[in-house]
Design goal:
- With about 160 residues, this protein is of the alpha+beta class.
- The protein contains four helices and eleven strands, in the order H-E-E-E-E-E-H-E-E-E-E-E-E-H-H.
- A hairpin with a 2-residue loop joins strand 1 and strand 2.
- The N terminus and C terminus are likely disordered.
């Protein structure tokens, strides 16, 4: 018998950043919205592209490509914001991730996930839970809490909260 959470924990939403395919656990994803106007907040790190008004709440939007040192994401008609709930300092926090495009929901069994290599990825491997096998290629599985909890993401949350 399969435990109820087992299936959910193996599902990931894929999205593209700077030509690479990444994925986050589906349980962290709250919604996907079109990329609209972002309000830039002074003195925030460059990877915090701005904030949006999401049903009356100020939500910081992080450009993970910039945070990972891959350059700023260019906004196109396929760009979107993936709204995620992460845990920062023990508190659930809503944040947005700027994505070049969203892919699909994929299932990865434990056998499909391998440890990230210690070289060869353009992303700090501390931000990765592993790499999911998808046919002949791999999808980089992000530990979204860790990726967004780095110092510049926390600064962006604090700045966004100060503007409320």
């Amino acid at each position: 018998m399969t435990e109820p959470n087992t299936v959910q924990e193996t599902q990931y939403l894929t999205f593209h950043l700077a030509g690479e395919e990444y994925a986050v656990g589906i349980l962290a994803v709250k919604e996907i919205i079109p990329c609209g106007a972002l309000t830039r907040v002074p003195q925030t790190p460059a990877s915090i592209r701005g904030v949006i008004n999401l049903r009356g709440n100020v939500v910081p939007v992080v450009d993970l490509a910039m945070k990972f040192g891959l350059g700023a994401s260019a906004q196109t008609h396929r760009s979107c914001i993936v709204i995620v709930e992460v845990t920062l300092d023990g508190e659930p926090t809503i944040m947005g991730i700027l994505a070049d495009s969203v892919g699909q929901v994929m299932d990865f069994s434990a056998d499909d996930v391998v440890a990230p290599p210690i070289f060869g990825t353009r992303v700090n491997t501390g931000f990765l839970m592993g790499m999911g096998r998808s046919g002949s290629k791999f999808v980089l599985l992000l530990n979204i809490d860790r990726a967004l909890a780095a110092a510049d993401a926390e600064t962006g949350v604090a700045s966004a909260a100060a503007t409320e």
